[in-house]
Amino acid sequence: MGNKTIVVWSCGHADPDASNERFTWLGKFLFDIKPDLAIDLGDGADMRSLNSYDTRYPQKVVNQSYEEDIESYIDSQERLRQPFKASKKKKPFWVGFEGNHENRIKKALAEDPRLEGKKYGISFGHLQTREFFTEYHQYRNSAPGIADYLGIDFAHYFASGNSPAATSGLNHAHSLINNRHKSSICGHSHKRNLYFKDGPGSIGLVVGCYKGQEESWAGQSNQEWWKGVVVLRDVSNGRFEPQFVSMSMLEKEYA
Hints:
This protein is α/β, with parallel strands linked by helices. The chain has one domain: Purple Acid Phosphatase, chain A, domain 2 (4-Layer Sandwich), CATH 3.60.21. Helices cover about 25% and strands about 20% of the residues. It has helices at about 20-35, 60, 65-85, 105-110, 130, 170-180, 245-255, and strands at about 5-10, 35-40, 95, 135, 145-150, 150-155, 185, 190-195, 205, 230-235, 240-245. The strands form 2 sheets. Strands 4-3-2-1-10-11 form a 6-stranded mixed β-sheet. Strands 5-6-7-9-8 form a 5-stranded mixed β-sheet, with helices on one face. The protein is globular, with a radius of gyration of 18 Å.
């Protein structure tokens, strides 16, 4: 068997206020290239209704709905898989990660356990991760889970040293390799960054985002975000050839 192909993306942020059409495009793309692994690095659900930032702004809170947040996420995941379901073709090995936005559910329950309820309350189970993903990696010790696939470590983000804060910066991918000494791929920052290290051959990659709209809180940073997915070709023992496919390219091909 030859080397593997992986499609990886992060930060889809399914949100009732934004169209989910972009997930239909990505689902068709996945069906066309049929990767061995499809890896969603988390923040697929925005969960705006559980954020702690809008409480001072009633005009933002009034239109937020937990139920609509969940429904938007479920719809996004179904759109990704619809071409495989319709054709009855085998899906890729589908990997998911809990991001800090999905983690809002657990934070809300930690603050008020009375909210928990699979039918009428709040529950991480509403995301249906067991149904959608072959393997799903939740937070561990208050930080995103890390998992190795084909010699590459994947995570929603990698912490900076002993700090729980995410590694970031202008040379984000370079920092990943310097800190971890192993091929590492993450999302979270919404930006795109790539670094190849000679010798051991490690590669650091930050995959951008797959968001559908700009955010008022982000200001000028909206212009720095790269929207798309990354195809990892010829993956073996931590090495790969990256192919960047922007959301606008997917829209032109599949809209």
